[in-house]
Structures are given as C-alpha cells and as structure tokens.
Amino acid sequence: MSIKVNENYKNLAQNYLFKTIAEKVSAYTQANPDKKIIRLGIGDVTLPLTPSVIEAMHKAVDEMGHQETFKGYGSEAGYDFAIDAVRNHYEKSGVILKKNEVFISDGAKSDCGNITDIFGDNEILIPDPVYPVYLDSNVMCGRKVQFIAANQENGFLPLPDAIEKKSYIIYICSPNNPTGAVYNKEQLKQWVDFANESESVIIFDSAYEAFIHGDYPHSIFEIEGSRTCAIEICSLSKTAGFTGTRMGWTIVPEELVCSGTALNPMWNRRQSTKFNGTAYIIQRGGQAALSEEGFKECQENIAYYMENAKLIASALDEKGIWYTGGISSPYIWLKCPNNMSSWEFFDYLLNELQIVGTPGCGFGPQGEGYFRLTSFGSREATLEAIERMKKGL
Ligand SMILES: Cc1ncc(COP(=O)(O)O)c(C=O)c1O
C-alpha cells in the first residue's frame, strides 16, 4: 500500500511551455557559445522599478529595522493603505470597491491557480489561445475544460452567442495574453449578461489593463451587472515591473453568490487559511506604484515598451507578415510565414536569427501556426532583433 498521488497531474501537457523553450535555448547556446541570442519570448519586463517604488520600499525596510515601526504578520487580505491604493486606482475608471472586496496577493498567477479552491466540480470555459495557467490549474484538480475558440474570424475575441446556456466558470483575459485582443464595453456586456442568465462566474484577468490604449474597459466592474457574476484578478507585474517583486490582487464583490453561498467570505476564508499576506515592504512599493506620481512613472515605462512594439510591428509590415496586438498589450501575435507550424518557426528564428519567441501552440490548439513576440526587451535588443528579421525573414 502506498500513498495515492493526485492522478490529475498525469493529464497535464508534458512540459510547461516555457520549460521547453528554455531547454531548446540552452541546447542551442551550448552548441553555439559564440552566437548572441535575443530574447523576445517570455513575458518578463526588463526596465527597473521606478524611483517612487524604490523610495517607498527603502523607507519600509528602515521601518522594519526599528522596534517602534517593525511589522510582523499583517492582515492576510493586505494592509489598509494597499487596499485603498487599489480602490483609488479603480475609482479612476469609475469603479467603486468596498474595503473587504479587495484581497492583496503576491501576484496574479497564484490567485489564478488558487481561485479553483472555492469552486466545486464545474465545467470550465477557457479561451483558446490564452495564458496557460487557467487550463493547467483546472486540469490539476480534475475539472472538465472546454475551449472557446479565438481566431482571426472573431478577431481573437470570442463571444457567448453560440455557447449552450448552462453554468460555467468562464475565464476572460483582456487585454489577452498572447493575442493582445481587448474586449470593448458592448462585448464584455454580452459576457456579463450571459453569465448572469446562466448563473456562471467570470474570472476576469486584467493583468495588462495598464497597457490599454483607447476606449476599452480596464476592469470588468465597469460593466453593469458584473458585481453579481465576476471576480477580477490583477497584478502589478507588467504595470509596474513587479515580476520579481510580487504584488497583485483579487476582487470578489459582496453580491457574488453561487448556490446560495457568497463567494467573498469564502475567498477570505481561503486566503486566511492558506496565505499569510504579502510582505509589508512590497505592499508599500505597490502603494507607491499606484500613487499619482508613481503611476506616471509606470506609464513612462509602458510607453517605452509600446515603442518597442511599434518597431517590431513595422518590421513585420515591411516583410508582409500578418500580425495583431501591440497596441493595447505588450504582445505581438503573428501568423508564422510560409505556413510554418509554431515550433517550426520557433526553431527557424532560434537557429537562423538567434531570436527567441514563444510558439503560439503553447497557448492552446488555436494558437498553432501563430507566434508571440514581446516588446519587453531593451530598445537596443529590439532594434537588433528587427534588423535580423528584416534581413532573414
Ligand atoms: C494573463 C496573465 N495573467 C497573470 C499573469 C501572472 O502575473 P503575476 O506575475 O502577477 O503572477 C501573467 C503573467 O505573464 C499573465 O500573462
């Protein structure tokens, strides 16, 4: 007799996408140590934290070093100052949140995975292609997942019109990783109406909201009716360069009730039991990032990345390669030239041009034949990459 393991893990795709990429790149660099690789693959930022954030965190470190200002455990849901900073940020989009509806976390990935804890065995709707964590975290707990196809025909923005009306957990990522597609108000309203009518719950991932350019909702809570059907997960990772610093939040409105049970106290209970809060120093940094001055600095960094996106787009234009995104998101989603598969194009870019991107098929079956490039590189690396693409594609 031995210990039973979670057999659902056997149903996960063999390798996490980025692990396979890392292995391929490592094999290439070992075989070609003299070649300079440019990474436009993993969605990690490269610009450092901004001055406001650094100043706030330095101050917080000093506080931790003095008896009178030292902090031990904080509230699991976050310090009031961080919660209020998030609430103020939402107020700019006209969204009013109560204190107890905001839960500060160590980032969106944890919350995207952990949120499955408060739901039973429901059917799951996941856009295809999308950030792979939604799928894998549901596969890990044995949930039945259906894909909603996002493709060129629907502008990578699937709508609920053809979906059977029953209760689902519906994941929506807008702006979308990897396609960069953003829902407008009317389209999101269709999802909210569908969710309310079918007693579904939307899990809305707004990790890239700060990149939105134009009149698109930054939060699902800008949409009428959303407070009875949606949870929102967001992060400072891309907004403020917090990928290595770690702060995000989840919003669970008081009105969200499923099968007679309010989800807000459930999420509170889940977090209080399994999470001991985000570090005080980090929450001070997050508060600074969301302050008026701090957010302006973040927007300057985002503008830098978006200039990179424009440069990449202009190289693709020159080569006649179809792409989308790069306007309200740091990602450019392109169709692999010459009918190459995603991995064929990955190998071509790595072996011939020494550029690393991300194969579209890693984000779902509909991503096959597509490819993601990111604007998170340095200007210098981006310029060099586009020179190589202009010559070699
Ligand atoms: C759509 C989406 N959600 C969530 C995350 C995770 O963000 P965090 O760094 O806050 O865990 C990412 C990271 O790439 C993402 O692309």
UniProtKB/TrEMBL annotation:
Q: Where is the Aminotransferase class I/classII large domain?
A: 36-388
The cofactors named for this UniProt entry are: pyridoxal 5'-phosphate
**A Pfam family that the UniProt record links to this protein:** Aminotran_1_2
Question: Which UniProt key words apply to this protein?
Answer: Aminotransferase, Pyridoxal phosphate, Transferase
Which Gene Ontology biological process is one annotated for this entry? lysine biosynthetic process via diaminopimelate
- Output the superkingdom of the source species: Bacteria
What pathway is this protein said to act in by its record? Amino-acid biosynthesis; L-lysine biosynthesis via DAP pathway; LL-2,6-diaminopimelate from (S)-tetrahydrodipicolinate (aminotransferase route): step 1/1
Among InterPro entries, the record links this protein to: Aminotransferase_I/II_large (IPR004839), DapL/ALD1 (IPR019942), NHTrfase_class1_PyrdxlP-BS (IPR004838), PyrdxlP-dep_Trfase (IPR015424), PyrdxlP-dep_Trfase_major (IPR015421), PyrdxlP-dep_Trfase_small (IPR015422)
Q: What is its EC number?
A: 2.6.1.-
Q: GO MF annotations for this entry? A: L,L-diaminopimelate aminotransferase activity; pyridoxal phosphate binding
Give the first-level EC class, as a single word.
transferase
**Which reaction equation describes what this protein catalyses?**
(2S,6S)-2,6-diaminopimelate + 2-oxoglutarate = (S)-2,3,4,5-tetrahydrodipicolinate + L-glutamate + H2O + H(+)
Residue ranges annotated as transmembrane are none
Residues folding into a coiled coil are none
The Swiss-Prot or TrEMBL record describes its family as follows: Belongs to the class-I pyridoxal-phosphate-dependent aminotransferase family.
Protein name per UniProt: Aminotransferase
